[in-house]
Amino acid sequence: MFARTALRVASRPANLSRTLRAGYATAATSDPNHFSASAVEAMNPRGVEISKAQQIAENGFISAIGNTPLIRLKKLSDETGCTILGKAEFQNPGGSVKDRAAYYVVKDAEERGLLKPGGTVVEGTAGNTGIGLAHVCRSKGYKLVIFMPNTQSQGKIDLLRLLGAEVYPVPAVAYDNPENYNHQATRYAEARENCVWTNQFDNIANRQAHIETTGPEIWAQTNGQLDAFTCASGTAGTIAGCTRYLKTVSEGRVKCYVADPPGSVIYGYVASHGKNLGERQGSSITEGIGQGRITENLRPDVELLDGALKVEDAKSIEMVYRCLDEEGLYLGASSCLNVAAARDLAVMLGPGKTVVTILCDGAYRYADRLFSKKWLHEKGLWEAVPERLRGYAVLE
């Protein structure tokens, strides 16, 4: 008897108003006269409203992709006098923004008759696209084959294999070398029936995913009241697709800037208005972003960009720790490069503006580096971590 009474007391929310308390009584009782579902619903009207709109993901994994929230980054918004919003792509079911591209490149292959039931999907990837494809392929019954540089961590290889992919780590060589992992993926697919190379860098179905989903979601969530958008370019699907949609729907009003890490040619190309592509020099600790060429996903929309923002690794690392401490967001380095770019863009545009960026994924796949004192020292980035936040670097 005592245990049941204790349960009832512990289960009753302490902050209910008198009116709601009367309707709620105790959720632990089985007596319907002591429980009001409408009163409980009233405690979370926003959540109930969103749940009703989303309904059930009838087609399993693929229909759970997208419709991610926009999160106001409070500290940075207050600092800049702007509203800085991050689209929480880490809430996609596969954990990253690449779920969108993965679904669209597979869907495109199906619609064009290149992929039939029981077929095989092939991709050259070292990161989140492979993970997204692994989930999509399992949900649709396809086999997945991944080629990746053998410089990638064993953890990535293990994760892809855990998700059912057949993984081939191959020597890391430049794109113009026939043994580059992308070219090996192409040859593998061409030599087999009912087998398709999804070609994430130059398959514009990637870009289309963001024209049809990410861009419209951002526009709807802000009621069209955004002034600027920025994110980095890897395959360029996200920056190109969102730029195309937001520029079109706003009749050019929304400013769009590509964010670029060290070692990438995109910043120089955009800053020179397409006159100077240059060559890759240096490198970055960020993964999956930065590029040495203009991909077919970016090419149709590069002239729509209003400019480019260079973000050094030190800024990205600083933001990894700031987002964790100040916002409670556990984000990867590419996400935090985007956040740093959004902050710089907000400062450039001035107070009162609304700037949106992409929170690509969480830090879970990168924790052994981003929160390792040894790794940060090796990369010369320990000083980039604010002194007051160095306690978060708990790994040796």
Automatic annotation (TrEMBL):
Its cofactor is pyridoxal 5'-phosphate. Residues 64-361 form the Tryptophan synthase beta chain-like PALP domain. Pathway: Amino-acid biosynthesis; L-cysteine biosynthesis; L-cysteine from L-serine: step 2/2. This is Cysteine synthase 1. GO terms for molecular function: cysteine synthase activity. The lineage of its organism: Eukaryota, Fungi, Dikarya, Ascomycota, Pezizomycotina. Keywords: Amino-acid biosynthesis, Cysteine biosynthesis, Mitochondrion, Pyridoxal phosphate, Transferase, Transit peptide. SUPFAM superfamilies: Tryptophan synthase beta subunit-like PLP-dependent enzymes. The keyword Mitochondrion applies. GO terms for cellular component: mitochondrion. It comes from Friedmanniomyces simplex. It is an enzyme of class 2 (transferase). Coiled coil: none annotated. PANTHER family: CYSTATHIONINE BETA-SYNTHASE. It catalyses: O-acetyl-L-serine + hydrogen sulfide = L-cysteine + acetate; O-succinyl-L-serine + hydrogen sulfide = L-cysteine + succinate. Catalyzes the conversion of O-succinyl-L-serine into cysteine, the last step in the cysteine biosynthesis pathway. Can also use O-acetyl-L-serine.
